[in-house]
Amino acid sequence: MKISVSFTFLLLVSAVPTSDSVDSAPDIYAELREITASLAQLKADMTLQTQGQAGLKAEVDTLKQQLKVRQVAFSAALLSEGQSVTIGPYPTDTPLIFKNVRTNIGNAYNPTTGIFTAPVRGAYHFEWWLAVNVDIARAAGAVLFKNSEKIFMSWGQHGVSNGATLLLEVGDNVFMRLVGNTVVIDNNDHGTTFSGFMLFPM
């Protein structure tokens, strides 16, 4: 009887886990916490990546828009149709509207008003050429305006020309006016022209 009780006691003692075996058993809750933390970090990384892609797309769109804005150039002749036209003389300065548009990249020049409007702040260059009729005893003369400011004038008995480089702000207007008591002509040869383009943004 004593032998069987002792044997049963030994079995019970051996069945009880020791502290070492408990410590070495896997902690399922700790592993779950680690997995949860890893998933949270992965989600955060994916969010940052998505935000980075959105920011990169916005930068690309901005660069495309800037490149598009930089593409500004126009060239137009005075005569839109017909064989010949003579403008002037008028007692005061009169707007010159160059209606025959050959180039208008960026659509900054308005052939209805004859006004160029700067789409972006930058340096712009303008040139104009005036044809005259030598049989008419009058000179040709024109003034380049920036808003209400007179910039440069060209005047002469024969064909005249001039040019200017201007720093323009967004919305600044540039246009030509015929000087009072002068005349200008144009025909199918298109000798009277107004042109401009942006050198670079600033």
TrEMBL record:
<keyword id="KW-0732">Signal</keyword>
<feature type="domain" description="C1q">
    <location>
        <begin position="67"/>
        <end position="202"/>
    </location>
</feature>
<dbReference type="GO" id="GO:0005576">
    <property type="term" value="C:extracellular region"/>
</dbReference>
<dbReference type="InterPro" id="IPR008983">
    <property type="entry name" value="Tumour_necrosis_fac-like_dom"/>
</dbReference>
<dbReference type="InterPro" id="IPR001073">
    <property type="entry name" value="C1q_dom"/>
</dbReference>
<dbReference type="Pfam" id="PF00386">
    <property type="entry name" value="C1q"/>
</dbReference>
<dbReference type="InterPro" id="IPR050822">
    <property type="entry name" value="Cerebellin_Synaptic_Org"/>
</dbReference>
<feature type="signal peptide">
    <location>
        <begin position="1"/>
        <end position="15"/>
    </location>
</feature>
<protein>
    <recommendedName>
        <fullName>C1q domain-containing protein</fullName>
    </recommendedName>
</protein>
<keyword id="KW-0964">Secreted</keyword>
